[in-house]
Amino acid sequence: MKIRAKKSLGQNFLIDQNIIKKIVNTVKIKKNDSIFEIGPGTGNLSFHLLKKNPKKFFAIEKDTNLTNLLNKKFKNKINVINEDILKFNVEKITKDKLIVFGNLPYNISTQILINWITTNKGNPFFKKLILMFQKEVAERILAKTNSKNYGRLSIISNWQLDVKKEFDINPQCFHPKPKIYSTLLTFIPKKKFVILRNPKNLEYITRIFFNQKRKMINKPLKQIFKNYNKIAKNLNLNTNQRPQNLSPSIYFDLTKEYEKIK
Ligand code: SAH
Question: Whole-prediction pTM value?
Fold first, then answer.
């Protein structure tokens, strides 16, 4: 079967064998580990993952033609689900803590990451995420307080997860060649993190602050809290600062304060 890449599904297949092996080796896959691959495409990465002999191997692919191709290629060695990851509840496929691989359309990587973080109440279905991002987006996820790229993505991603940059990937490693550089990031659940009643409140708080990125923080504080003076004092905030000057942990504390009055 001849495969033509579909632009609408963000299909850029990995063809560089060295990079594929490097991706697989970002995590030690043991005998009783189970894998979940998102958007396996033609199975270039899946092929190498399978060689690690995982206990179970699930994959989700939206493209029906590719799903058929994968089923022919890998028979029952990979359980390929022909669905859309954005509408899919991963928790229902197994109780195993999954190692999740995804070389996905870039906008989808960010969406599922935020989605999984903000719907998880402290018991994630994965033990590690290995995801590809557009380089600029990866830089925003990794950005430190006070830097230009620091913002909502950095704060939300760092709440429950430890994030690590693995490496950048050149457009030449794909076919068809994308116009941009990619970066591979890995995420593991933190052992300790600030407990929130609803992580969506962290999304809300950071949205209010970063919607007015250039304003001093007394403005969003006043907007959210009636007793903003007391909050500022308790959290030791200098209200002349801008949203980019506050560390992630301040945003977690602000969210906790918000949950008290909500
Ligand atoms: N991982 C493969 C393919 C990358 S291309 C490789 O590295 O070679 C991205 C893949 O994600 C394509 O196969 C595309 O069909 C699939 N895809 C795109 N949107 C999806 C979605 N919403 N849910 C599941 N798969 C999706």
Answer: 0.95
